[in-house]
Amino acid sequence: MALITEDYLEIDVPLNIDESVESYEYREYYPDGGENNLNGQGREIRFNINDLDLFTLPAESYLLVEGILWNSADNANYTNVANIALVNNGIMFLFNGIRYQINNNEIEN
To answer: Which is it for strands 100-102 and 70-71: parallel, antiparallel or unpaired?
Structure first.
């Protein structure tokens, strides 16, 4: 039996690593429609990034969630001295889903 060798099977070639990106920066984006004071309304929060000359790196991105803890029993805000504990990843329980889309094509859900 003869060995078949093809050029595309040659893996002894050194790996070519592209290091042309020298740096990156974080940018702030806010939801469409300004502030999203949901008050339990269950609205969709959408971020549109329309910079056509921008390359994004979703793996290095993050969401900053700011808000007020509300005590529904007393109908008042919690104070700075209140003893409050959230479960692990408690903020994520505020959302029922997230979608990552590029040009209205769903990339991840």
So the answer is: unpaired
Structure tokens at 88: 């692990």
pLDDT digit string (tens) for 59-71?
A: 888 888 887 777 7
- Rounded-to-integer distance, Cα 97 and Cα 109, Å: 7
The contacts found for 93-102 with CB under 8 angstroms, 24 or more apart, are: 94/65, 100/58
- pLDDT value, residue 36: 52
Mean pLDDT, all residues of the chain = 77
Token reading at 71: 């005590």
- Here the tokens at position 105 are 């094509």
Residue pLDDT, tens place only, 13-27? 788 888 887 888 888
Report which residue type is found at 22: E
